Amino acid sequence: MKLLDWLDDRTGYKALLHEALYERVPGGARWRYVWGSTLVFTFSVQLVTGLFLWMSYNPSSQTAWESVYYIQHEVFLGWLLRGIHHFTAQAMIVLLVLHLLQVIIDGAYRAPREVNFWLGLILMKIVLALSLTGYLLPWDQKGYWATKVATNIAGITPVVGDQVQELAVGGVNYGHQTLSRFFALHAGLLPALLIGFLGLHIYVFRRHGLTVRDPIYRADTTFWPDQVLRDSVACLAVLATVLLLSIYHGAGPHGGAELGAPADATEPYSAARPEWYFLFLFQFLKYFPGEQEIVGAMIIPGAIVGVLFLMPFIGRWKLGHAFNVAFIFGLFAGIAVLTGLARHADSRDEDFQAAVTDADQKAERVKELAAIKGIGAAGAVHLLHDDPKTRGAAIFAMKCAGCHRYDGHDGKGKVPKDTATASDLGDFGTRAWIKGILTDPVSPRHFGPTQNNPDVGERFVKGEMAEWVGDNVASGKIKADELDAVVEFLASLSGHKDVGAIDDEKVRKGQEFFALGSDAVSGSCYDCHTMKLSDDPGELFKEPSTQIATGAPDLTGYASAEWLNAFLSDPAHKRFYGSHNAMPAFAEQLSERELEMLVKWLLHDWPK
Amino acid sequence: MSQQSHSGAAQPAPDFSIPPAPRRSFLTQFLAAAVGALVGIVPAIVGLATFLNPLRKSVLQKQAPSGSDADGYYEVTALAALDATPQAFKIIADRKDAWNVFPQEAIGAVFLSLDGDNSVRAFNVTCPHAGCRVDFRGGKQAYHCPCHNSSFDVDGTRSPESPSARDLDSLKTKVVDGRVWVKYQDFKAGEKDKKPV
Predict the structure, then answer these.
(1) What pTM was computed for the model?
(2) Domains in chain A, start-ordered, CATH in brackets?
(3) B89: domain range?
(4) Which of B1, B5, B48 is the best substitution to test chain A (most A C-beta atoms within 10 A)?
(5) Which of A581, B43, B76, B131 is deepest in the core (most CB within 10 A)?
(6) For residue B10, is pLDDT > 60?
(7) ipTM, 2 decimals?
């Protein structure tokens, strides 16, 4: 006790503590006073969790996503830490709205509390700026593209727009400087401003005391412990909500906040949406085309904030308070409607849904790759660039899905509206594919769809291959084991990674049948298709094929990476379809790297 | 319309006297303190758990470089390249740094030489005193640390005036098909005994 007296003598802490704890609460402690305290609480949570996140976070375009991935998937409880920070930020927005609503409903902006009301509005803007800057920091596709939109909007500011944008971005390109600037704002300047303004807000609040709705509700009390208990319970409810959301609502194996695929300027992201509480602004901007954007992005929001700031003066008029209350409810109703419209539009927009699916798949895949291969110095974005599974699918969707299908879709899961005019390559190079061609070449998976192309017509569906199958397979002239053997032989040439173990005995029989046919069937495969084997002890393919049919492709190394690459590069080459070809050559349309990705994707040759 | 606060535009001095009938039962105080502490401590504990992450064994194991054989030996050079004069060689392996993997980078270095019996002698280049990198001075036929002037004989024995508490850290070696393999390890600096880290 003596020590405490000594300390009090030197610091006066007891008076300070007394002032802090024994604030008068006229009319007794009430639940309706908790909102301000929950906001202070959520901000403290953000300070604590933010500080710990900072210990693992690295703001640069090659390390931001990677360090967040590390926090989310490698650091013990890192996912929960991120989850708490992420969902507390959202809770803060909700609590801000409740706090503002109550202040306006209770008329707490009136004299002498005008300045405190304005301080509150400034705090609200700082909190919104914190969420805007924080959204970018994981450097995932979502944050990257949403921030691009936000900074472009800043760029339409009259006169100084370009400069404002360049200062925010740290140049004209989004990258290291954008991240370090946003991080300095998010973790340095904005929290410092918030602490300063919060101090003033609480100071002025204490100066004027609570806005008491009902002074004779109960006997007067003090902040400690009656109101503190209610405040703590409210904070506990907030924390519990945040924890539940972190654990059950989040994405990924543990939950927590979402982490999309790493930001990629070369990969457009049609699923870009701001955080839900900015969705109304996003929707609002749809109504202001072209040059009018500034009206929706700045003039109207500016006017609304202007009205909020003027509320203490408006409230002095007879109907002023009623106007203020009506205005704030109208505003939030408008926001709710706009948010609802945005959600509704997205829920009916197939392109958006597909973009979200695609984004989710990429996010999952890049985490898979990071776990399999580790992340190189160039960053995680290169894991996806070099990944046939995602790159190949994207190239297929862009270049091939106009005519072909992949298991019925465009390679990325979207079913094109147009009718297919070429084969479905979902199982290309597998035994099922080869057997399909040999038993039903005109099926929808094989050459069937080519008749939908008027330039091709019935060239394939009534072609020599279809005829041969009709003569020999449907009629049962080819025996089941012969068919199996040819399938096995061709599968042994395929580069498809799921072909699995090869039966050498069957292959040998298949080679024989391919070269010579049998007494029952009309003509052998080799009569039309060229074939060379590096190891041909029986000299089955010594004499060149007579190639009696036009456009019968050379099947040497059929469905190997080399074969496929050469085929895609120039399908009209005499080695392939020759004059029967109807497919574009891709040697000029795709780079060597893209061709390689596409080929590997078709053959399922990717890190697993 | 809500009630105006009791404090008007003309501000009276704030009243901090304890009201006449305070409902401050022990239970209320206890609950207020307990719930308040709980909400404060949960986020802090989660944060602290992430902060303590580097102490986990699994994290340390994941950070270990890969590229050695099962016994921890790294292939370094050809036996023919060695003679009695110590030469520094890099240990090349896949270096790991938190989330990054840097394939085939130097993870450390060793001095290799042949002793009198033509067997390979290997030392970690790190000074056992404070962790600086020693170099070999041909003129003096001794290893020398530029930081605090520790010096060591060709066989790794420290000279008496050295601040280092132990001799240079020798490493195990083996020769397979004319190639020298070294069991590369780092040891804790500053202590008398050689303890792997």
Answers:
(1) 0.86
(2) 32-259 (1.20.810.10), 273-348 (no CATH), 389-602 (no CATH)
(3) 64-183
(4) B5
(5) B43
(6) no
(7) 0.83
